[in-house]
């Protein structure tokens, strides 16, 4: 009885929270439709701060910031949305549009072809979808092995064995992709510059020599950290140091 009461209590909390999220989302959407983009972004981010995370929420936050010409924040949230919904065409399109306005024109080095292939394949689906695909292949493989044991005809036993071994081994690939995608979703290793302009330094010191000025919206790879300074790598391979607070991790 106590367990049932606890379950009902927890369920009621979830229902109330869901209703609150829906109400906040409607208010934020209404503010966006009325052209009050600053209010919309604040309300959408309040939902995020309360623990709600979804591609739709990040997409709406990004759109709100884009309308305010806050390019860094817009690209940051488009990137976050794309991590959760990598095949979403609207997110991909809006991210491309936002990148057209970037001030920094950094030519990216061509990635190692195997790494590029793996990353492209990994980003086709979310981690949960890859995991479901892996489970499906594994269960089909187990079904094939069961058929191998139970089938009477030799041809059916042979087919069941081949499918069972083949599909079980094939399930390793989506499981590996699910793990890789989950790692990226938890810690992307990349950040977006949100300051209008910041100098990339040779060392982790404010008076160190300047390498180049970076502007908001530029994507950087996070390599290391010393105190409040972060070592980063640009798309062209150039490395340097940035102070804390000038970028946000995707």
Name the features.
five-stranded antiparallel sheet, 60% helix, 250 residues, SH3 type barrels, alpha+beta
Write down the domain tally.
Answer: 3
CATH architecture assignment of the largest domain: Alpha Horseshoe
* Class per helix and strand makeup: alpha+beta
Q: How much β-strand is present in the residues?
A: 5-15%
Enter the CATH topology name of the largest domain.
Answer: Serine Threonine Protein Phosphatase 5, Tetratricopeptide repeat
Distance between the termini: 45 Å
Task: Describe the global form.
Answer: globular
Strand order of the largest sheet: 6-5-4-1-7
Number of helices: 9
Mean pLDDT: 89
Supply the CATH class of the largest domain: Mainly Alpha
Based on DSSP secondary structure assignment, what is the total number of beta strands?
7
Topology as H/E string?
A: HHHHHHHHHEEEEEEE
What does the model show?
The protein has 250 residues and is α+β, with helices and mostly antiparallel strands. The protein has three domains: 2-100, Alpha Horseshoe (Serine Threonine Protein Phosphatase 5, Tetratricopeptide repeat), CATH 1.25.40.10; 115-186; 190-249, SH3 type barrels, CATH 2.30.30.40. It contains nine helices and seven strands. The chain is globular. It starts with a helix and ends with a strand.
């Amino acid at each position: 009885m106590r367990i049932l009461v606890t379950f009902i209590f927890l369920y009621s909390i979830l229902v109330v929270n869901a209703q609150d999220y829906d109400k906040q989302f409607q208010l934020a959407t209404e503010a966006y439709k009325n052209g009050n983009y600053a209010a919309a972004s604040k309300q959408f981010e309040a939902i995020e701060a309360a623990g709600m995370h979804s591609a739709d929420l990040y997409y709406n936050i990004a759109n709100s910031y884009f309308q305010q010409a806050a390019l860094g924040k817009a690209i940051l949230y488009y990137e976050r949305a794309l991590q959760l919904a990598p095949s979403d065409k609207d997110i991909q399109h809006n991210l491309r549009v936002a990148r057209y306005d970037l001030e920094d024109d950094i030519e990216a080095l061509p990635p190692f072809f195997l790494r590029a292939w793996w990353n492209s394949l990994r980003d086709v689906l979310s981690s949960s979808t890859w995991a479901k695909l892996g489970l499906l292949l594994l269960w089909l493989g187990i079904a094939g092995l069961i058929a191998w044991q139970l089938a009477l005809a030799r041809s059916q036993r042979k087919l069941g064995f081949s499918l069972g071994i083949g599909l079980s081994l094939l399930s390793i690939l989506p499981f590996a992709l699910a793990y890789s995608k989950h790692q990226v979703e938890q810690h992307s290793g990349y950040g977006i510059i949100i300051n209008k302009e910041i100098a990339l330094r040779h060392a982790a010191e404010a008076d160190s020599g300047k390498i180049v000025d970076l502007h908001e919206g530029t994507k950087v790879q996070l390599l290391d950290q010393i105190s409040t300074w972060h070592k980063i790598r640009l798309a062209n391979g150039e490395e340097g140091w940035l102070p804390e607070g000038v970028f946000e991790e995707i």
